[in-house]
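Hi, here's the filled form for the chain we discussed.

Project: internal
Contact: R.S.
Residues: 97
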Amino acid sequence: MHDALTDSHTFRLLNVINNYNQEALTIEVDFSLPTQRVIRSLNQFTECRGKPIQIRCDNDPEYISNTLKEWAIEQGSILSYIKPDNPQQNAYVERYN
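And the returned structure, exactly as it came back:
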């Protein structure tokens, strides 16, 4: 997700939500969330909650990078992408925000 402040500075959000019970498992907010930051957050998450079987995400650059794909393979997780410009496929996260 991304949004803008009143002074036009944009910020990004990484939300990890359990698809079954819609529980927010972790949230990262910053002006920039590069792939390495996403991976660091996911590593912290997996230490507490275990490795996810599947991660559904959009097609932003930090999620389609080879670095994240390699991380997912190492974890034994599947990256599942929604269709571009189709947020309805990620309705839980969209509604959460």
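Let me know if anything looks off before we file it.
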